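Retro notes, item 3 of 5
We never archived the inputs for the flavin-adenine dinucleotide complex last cycle. Fixing that now. Sequence and ligand:
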Amino acid sequence: MTNSNKKIAVIGAGLTGLTAAFYLKQKKNSFQVFEKESRIGGVIQTHQKGDFTWESGPSTGSISKPEVMELFEDLKALDVLETAKSVSKNRYILKNNKLHALPSGPVSGFFTPLFSWKDKFGILLEPFRAKGSDPHENLSSFVKRRLGSSILDYAVDPFVSGVYAGSPETIIPRYALPKLYSLEEQYGSFIKGSIHKLKETKTTREKKATKEVFSAKGGLSTLIHKLEEAIGKESIHTHCENLEIRYENNQYIVSSSSTEPQIFDQVIYTASAKNIFEVFPFLNTPPYQDANQILYTAVAEVAVGFSQWEAFPLDGFGALMPSKENRDLLGILFMSSLFEKRAPQGGAMLAVFVGGERRPELLELSDKELQNLVENELKSILKIQNFKPEIFEIQRHFNAIPQYDILTPKRMAAFEAIQNAYPGLFLGGNGVGGIGMADRIKQGKELALNILK
Ligand SMILES: Cc1cc2nc3c(=O)[nH]c(=O)nc-3n(C[C@H](O)[C@H](O)[C@H](O)COP(=O)(O)OP(=O)(O)OC[C@H]3O[C@@H](n4cnc5c(N)ncnc54)[C@H](O)[C@@H]3O)c2cc1C
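Structure as it came back at the time:
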């Protein structure tokens, strides 16, 4: 499958754009990647100092789609794939200033103090509860209706702040959690649907998708370097500020402050939906106005590294703070418990998240104020007596995670209308198709393969 007489522009060199470019290269196509910043990788960025390694963007991905394994295989980079240690299966939730393991089965579910007795017994009735009728019902009402309020408060709410830095009131399951939504749609119940799914036979390809958590040896930037090597630096243009695309005679003319105008037959757009009209001014007209309608949550990510760890045993993936607990943190990832060489022997590396839809104003705090807040919270939650971190690095992401909320169907409809009207234009990015790294890899691959059809 090649398209070799066509020239393709890929906009954005984050994980989605680089994955797309890699598969275009693999199929021997003519393409150029345009990136606004001076570096590639988008939000993925690994840092190192002494024996500490930390991320200032995504920390862990899930191998929930076959495309993740396929990317490492196709890159011949299985040697750098790092899956999290088995301790990652243990996840903590804070309740009354104490960390409790999230139940992993019926027995621990029965004894956990996280959920009410009413909801523990109520689960038995879940298969018999009526199906919802509102396709735009929010996650809060969806979960309350099927599972009960304590499960919403102490499992789903912290999960939503951990993944989306968002709120169950905003998230619409149909768009954000389509698999969960379809369990009710198809089978009338989560329990019945999950049992059904377990019985389905999986193809060899489907078996590549697992529940495992991944990073790369030395951090996620290693994956970005592998992609760059395979794509070839000569095909990637950085510093492309003020990038603008015009449409003339069924072709796309791409220009930026650092590149001469170049003509392309096809364009893959992977940057934010928010900036779509700056890049494509000709789309800023009815009926496409909703294409840039996207809500982001803001997050401060704080890497805290200790050379000696003598507090709460970090025997898990991390700890999440339910909204009900009114804490200043959203969650803490125990990075050095998941992956090798994140902290010196006997030390620890934590990734701490602040802000989100709950507390966006915390991103306005000065570094010093944020440092005090994180210190107080970590001392209280992880029972740290002697708070003397060697690494304390703050990264503020003002447009961190897109929320798949009520604006989503409007944005998707506009994307579809644009793609129907402009042949050769393919719109991706994390405003469509999911926010996780697995979603981004899947989308990048599909965009490249679809453009070749
Ligand atoms: C703080 C944080 C934590 C996260 N944690 C996780 C996690 O633990 N697990 C997980 O699976 N996912 C996580 N995510 C989500 C995941 O990181 C992202 O969805 C994914 O990396 C996005 O990749 P992308 O290529 O779609 O977008 P981006 O990484 O945003 O890349 C888009 C690229 O386009 C460039 N660009 C923008 N505008 C233009 C323009 N006009 N012209 C040219 N280039 C342009 C940008 O500079 C950027 O390089 C996290 C995200 C954030 C922000």
